[in-house]
Structures
1.
Amino acid sequence: MRFAYNTLVYGDEPAGDSIARLARFGYDGVEFVGEPGKFDVAEVRDLLAAHDIAASSICAIFTPARDLVSRDAAVRREAVDYIKWCVNLAAEIGAEAISTQVAACMKIRPEDERSIELDRAVEGLKEAGEAAGEMGIRLALEPWNRYETYLINRIEQSLEVVERVDLGSVGCMADLFHMAIEEVDIAAALRLPGDKLYHVHFADSDRAAPGHGHTDFRPSVEALLDMDYAGYVSFELLPASGDPFLMIGQAREFFDEYTEQAITYTKGIVAEVEQAR
Amino acid sequence: MVTFAASVWIWESPPTDEVLERLVPRLAGWGFDAIELPVESVGDWAPRHAKDLLSASKIGATVCAVMPDDRDLSTDDAAIVASTQDYLRTCIDIAAEVGSSVVAGPIYAPVGKTWLLAGSEREEVLGRIATGLRPVARYAADHGVRVGVEPLNRYETSVINTLEQAAELVDRVDTVGIGIAADTFHMNIEERGVSRALELAAERLVHVQVAGNDRGTPGGDDFDWQGLAAGLRAISYEGVIAIESFTALNQTIARAASVWRPLAKQQDDIAVNGLPFLRQLLS
């Protein structure tokens, strides 16, 4: 199992410090925030090579200006172009997957009928997915919990859209924090997409490092091993505020402490599960 | 011994006399000991009429306070604090009339009011809330009622997310009329350990609301039910266990609780299938 850590929670820290930290704690990959101007691509490539660590994935950021299901065609255009920009970024730094959503984060009011909005999601993901496919990059459609979106809360809802898009480059994503709110059986939901599961986020029930809350990671690890899941398990850990962006970069325990705990604890669970087989 | 209730919100919002006429006998028929009655607006339902319905069906009631934008004890607006205190005293009167020993709810701030509480501001806000709650809690005690402070998850409030934070507020108010109301849906997100949190609340715990981790039917879901049972046993909790869920069919309550899909095949399942599970777990 390959592990990465989402640098989102490090805020404005220089990329070099983030990369060095993740290499030091034995990570295989670095998940980068997909925001134009956030870092220098050439410099990051050099840093990754110097620390012998890969770019795992791009965490795409969906704002009201980047919304695939918006009633406004210009906003939908912006969202598709943004994902394509993330695809290029991924290709440049060697990342494999992009965590993707179809509506703005924290948007909980639909603009149109669900079926109309899902049609727009499929249309946008098709165009962005074709661009991703040409570059060998995968889009992973992530369900968020009910407070962050109204549209795709469960894996089964993500899979429904993915099947309609019907491209090898577009699959599902799973985040255990959101799943602890939305799925009554987390491991069963992980298994649902089968080989269409392209990217996974781990976090404990309270979004802190695994081991901090009360999520039982064993059934999830078993599911991923059974599925021969070949993507990254990336830790997306965030402070306990309603707007996940409110406290980013301020909570120091998410730097060294949780970065080390996340991989150490999870590797321990994987070893336990493998030993029991 | 614990007793079991189900909230009106599983089916309807707001409760009305007509809604209670339909629901009270049904809940009694399914074997519930009580019905949970939210007070969205005073006057939505008549306490005297409810009392008659409850007597006829031989079940009890629990009362919930509801906190929309204009009810707030965390604000420095004295007029809003005063009208919120008036509202809470009315809820206490209603509870006393229908025979509920608690008024539970996030009675400190409006649901959905979230902001970054930096360092000294948290202290200031908690002090203000405690000051606002003290006379309310005394009024409750005088009427044989306890006010239950309910922590909500991070997306619904930034003031009190955990039972530990609720305990801190309760200890500050320091009056017998106040305690903690625990809700398993919020606990699942915010507590590091379910049993540990309940043990910390200890004798302060006056009310418990339950639902599956997705806020659907209790049982057959991902919530740590064994942790709940162990925690309640450890503190010898002897109050009400109320199933609280929300219908996706009523747009107002669905939006207020961020329920975007039906949480059960039919709403009745949440109560009818939840009750035997809870009885077996906790009796």
2.
Amino acid sequence: MRRAIAWLALLLCGGAPAQVTYQRLLGADQEPQNWLTYSGSYQGWRYSRLDQINTSNASRLGMQWTFQVTDLGQFETTPLVVDGVLYGTGQNDRAFALDARTGRPIWRYQRNLPDKLQPCCGMVNRGIAILGNRLFMATLDGHVIALDTRTGNLLWDVKAADAKAAYVFTVAPLVVKNEVIVGISGGEYGVRGFVAAYDAETGQKRWRFDTVPGPGEPGHESWAGDSWKTGGAPAWITGSYDPELNLVYWPTGNPSPSGYGGARDGDNLYSNSMLALDADSGKLKWYFQFTPHDLYDYDATQVPVLLDAEWKGRPRKLLLQANRNGFFYVLDRTNGKFLQATAFGKVSWAKSIGVDGRPILNPDLTSGPAGQRVCPGALGLTNWYSPSYSPDSKLLYVATSDECDIFTSSPQTYRAGHDFLGSVYVPDPVVRPTGALKALDPTTGAVKWEFKYFSNPNGGVLSTRGGVVFAGESDGNFIALDGRTGAELWHVQLGAAVYSTAITYQLDGKQYVVIPAGSALFSFAIVQP
Amino acid sequence: MIVARVCLALALSAALSLHAQEKAVTNPVAGDPAAVREGASLFRGNCSPCHGLGARGGGRGPDLTAGRWVHGSSDADIFNTITHGVPGTEMPANDLEDSEVWAIMAYIRSLAPAKIEAISGNRAAGERIFWQTAGCSTCHMVHGRGGVLGPDLSRVGGARSVPYLIESIRQPSKELTTGMLDPNNHYGVPLEYDTVTVVTAPGEKITGIVKNEDTFSIQLMDTHQQLRFFLKKNLQQVSHQRTSLMPAYSDDMLKPAQLEDLVAYLESLRDE
């Protein structure tokens, strides 16, 4: 009898695919058939070793399947793919699991959200993280939840913040060891930002780092009066992780109110900064602030790219970030030391970055009755959409937005749950904004090539060993370029704007590339002629 | 009994709220410079995408500085229009605090002219100019007749001020109408009537109004009002003029008296 039960147990459970362990996450780049974490690996490269799709055959890409989310709004997810199953999130905190070969849904989940929520920029969600048989999602009503990978059933649900005061989550969590790390959104509503970690098994809070220091904490003096209480510095994009240093690199966003600095004199730490947090305790190891006392909404919420490379003749652990403020930064990620910053497009707010890493402000910004014209505009020279680093071409690919804005600014009284901007901006009405995909040499910051977009992008970049870089743009084109030259290899019109970045995986010997556009996922592979 | 109490409570609350509405018929912050500043800021963020940056009218919304209030001109009317929108039009309801609505109104009122300019021209003469001598109808449609290259002017009298109409005729490129921002692309300020010239591979030059464009293709309506679609890889050149395709009607082309007549006709074009 006992033997029979054992056989039955084997029969029922023996065929289950291996679960996603922390070890697998550490080596995510070693299993390119899957896409295990937001940026594809802890280094934040958004790069795949797959090469079936390459520069000589990308022109033969063809549609494999589509999946319709059937909801409205910006579709910003980065799907994960694990052993044949694709997991994604949709607008209004939907989640789903699909057969990655066919796009056929296995389960769907929809969070029951309260009526009145205040995300600045749509009811969006950027994705999930996975560990074991749990998927982790941070929700628009300020909760962190775990879903069962097999059924979509809710396993735990913890409240992390007060959605009534406009604390919302849009970020894709990052799993490190057995922790689920998330960062809050709400920089347009005067929240006090934070990064927090939750136990993957129980949902219990492990640590929380407030990105605006309170009384008695270092950095508190960088806020005038009580301005820290509504200081913003949200943390709404997924960070990167260095297991050797055990440091999580998490970028932060604008101080609040974003466009009026009169009531928040000081540098406003740790807004617009890169934080290096101890993964186990959440303690701050170092920080680097890109835009002190920001007036133009220059969130530093761009995925940090970790690279070990030779720097001025010696090997160094680097952190690269093409920042929304228009400068491409290289830092030493062991200690946060500033190494270099170069403009990668049109910048007028600062003349350059000094040797200490602080911006040298431009005293000659032109100001007229309609406001002050500043480049880059409030949406930045780049933004949250992912960059990509290819170890083959040794180039960093960044989608950029060529736009200057006219800013006006005025004091504003804080009201909980109401927008708290202190300014408005409009795109310069004289020069039409455009965009580009640029390839930067990380060692010099030089732009090696650029592919011009007609409009500003909202989508990031994926690079592959096949030498192909993939990017989606606002006018609905999904484009494949030669990563070394920027030459166009292929494009397809998807009928709606791309607000996310492609991923790739391989199943049954076939490499797929998946891109969200409009409210659908589109899957492509090489089609034989 | 419970039902009766609920009804009584409902009736009382309705009476109270009616009372509140009656009380708040005038703008408590009218003329207050701080409110005007706040209103200007709120207007930019909430209203300018349709009504234009200076409230002088945009691709979708009418000029709010003309002193013509099609949906009522009292403070209560305008408050109601902003809060609840106008059913059957593109004016949506707005989820703003009362104080924010009053601030926006203080700003709009600060822009409105003291008096509406008198129209001295002859409407019937203006109608002939429009349809015959000046050739306006070649490109503009009124009540289903006319061309389609330029904006439909069937309601222009209700939507634009007289100075704006005059400027649009004499200097059509002075203030180009920006389009509503594309909901799928909240960047950029598309022009509603963007003039473009493309040069084909064999060297043919085609000018028209852009209907759409992306990285790889362009769709335009040429000056013969034909839709023309091109792949950019097949073109030698695409140049955006950032000027209006409409000719500037100088004094020589349109005498001051004729201009007055034409404006009298345009001003009469309303919704009816």
